[in-house]
Amino acid sequence: MTVLAQQLVLGLLIGGLYGLAAAGLSLVFGVMRVLNVAHGELIMLGGYGAFWLAALFGVDPFASLALVIPGALVLGAVLYAGLFGFVVRAHEEARVKNSLLIGFGLALALHALAVRLWTADERSIPTSYSGAVLSVGNLAIPLVRLATLILALVLIGALQLLLSRWRWGKAIRATAEDWQAALLTGIDVRRAYLLAFALGTALAGAAGTLVTIAYSVSPSIGLEWTLKALIVVVLAGLGSMMGTFVGGLVLGVAEAASAATFGGPYREIIGLVIFVVVLAVRPRGLFGR
Amino acid sequence: MSPAGQERGWALAILAALGLLALLPLARPREDTLNFVFLVLLSITLAEAWNIVAGYAGQVNLGHAAFFGLGALVTRALWINGTPVLLAMAAGAAVATLFALVIGVAAFRLRGAYFAIGTLALGEILRTTVGNALPEISTLPAATIAGYRLTLRYYLALALAAVSIVAVAALATSRLGLGMRAIREDEEAAEASGVGALGLKLTALALSTALAGLAGGLFAYYHISYYPAHPFGPHWTFDALLMTFIGGVGTLQGPVLGAVLYVVLKEYLALRWVDVHLLIFGALFIGIVLLLPGGLVQAVERARGMFGGRA
Questions:
Q1: Is residue A131 within 8 angstroms of chain B, CB to CB?
Q2: Which of A47, A48, A216, B274 has its CA 20 to 30 A from that of B34?
Q3: pTM for the complete prediction?
Q4: What are residue A27's phi and psi, to 5 degrees?
Q5: What is this model's ipTM?
Q6: Structural domain harbouring A254
Q7: Domain CATH for A242
């Protein structure tokens, strides 16, 4: 019983990161109707950003968020200007295909770049507090992972606030709702796209940093994280960032439960099965109106 | 020339080129040359198969590898246990097609991006399950390795590529193909004018997955040892997708041109820049997508228009 509870707790802890990883993808998908399959690679880059800051300059990995997030924001703006900005010029049907193509190309290039820069080895960031554990009854809660969960929640809360209060946040939401109507009311839709993509990339960078702190990073984690994020997006639907966070927690717990019941290798399958079932029930996805 | 006539012309030209390749083993080439051409031929089949669903019926299927993998899995199991290879490949293709029809009914309720990610998830489910159920590497028995003849595999790949060209050419010039293209352009409008969308999409998927299953069978026949989950890997889907789009989606010749360029470029870059070839390749690919959204086929047409040529 304790073993199961322990596994569920660990599942909950990683679930927060699933939610954060999905939040960025959800924002980009919801606003631009563009499926960025390189989202996992952006997460991977964020992880290496933190790894480099720690390895080269001895920056504390949590503090490195303050540098990785702005860095990712700029990277997102550059990627939008150089690549994804061309995609949204196409009409909506063609957007998905073009974004898949550019995403695959980008994923390939970023993966190769990461292998070149950081080798194919798994990297993590050891700190003096890495092993600290909070004991609650019979449960052992790794403090670092708990901190990543809380930070994920804080970041998603901040995003929610940004989208509901900030002038441009409202513009982003309006564009997601109906870009043509947004355009007619005088919103600069292109800039809303740019901001959404930059914010999505910043979230990916933050998620990558937290993943590297709590677990590890390697150049090939991209696809896995893209899939997790996609599962959460479909599970939680678009539009509510807090919903996405909860969706991430659900996926994390479901994975832990399935690993405990059917054995470790089946951890990955449950999410995919949930995903297919949700799609079978709501074929237009959860944002079909 | 009419589009149908153009497609027939291309089909003949490609088949003639494949005919010339049939002479290659007579020249006693080095083994790596044969292996290289084998890879090109396998890629042509896989890309052309993907093109049927994406290019003609307009559905981006990211689960292509699942059918390639199923073909490989079934063929390998039957062939190693004594079934003649062609029979084993047919069985592999049948299983892949059957599976496609079963999941197709559900999957085609999904539209656009949801169809794409839904099929990607299906492929990953299969890959993970096979990886869990069959974790051991599959190696041919010593006796089979001793009698291994590459030329045989080469001719089989050649035949399969020819079959896929003939199949797509026949489809492209038929009413069936016309209906599929109507769905691609506007599904609602096609349905309204009496085109049965689901039936046609399933037909496209069945044809595509049969070819992918055969290609998987060929892979199982060709490779001496591999992990059973390997042919289920998503990169098989992505490769087919990239080749098709580089060449020109929804045309007969596009996937062929794309496959040749893709394999040649990738191998050349791998030799020339060992460390960074994938980086260059990825960047080059993005460049092609941005500059030539219709692929090589469109680029050639544009160039022709520019020089005022009529062909």
A1: no
A2: B274
A3: 0.84
A4: -60, -50
A5: 0.77
A6: 2-281
A7: 1.10.3470
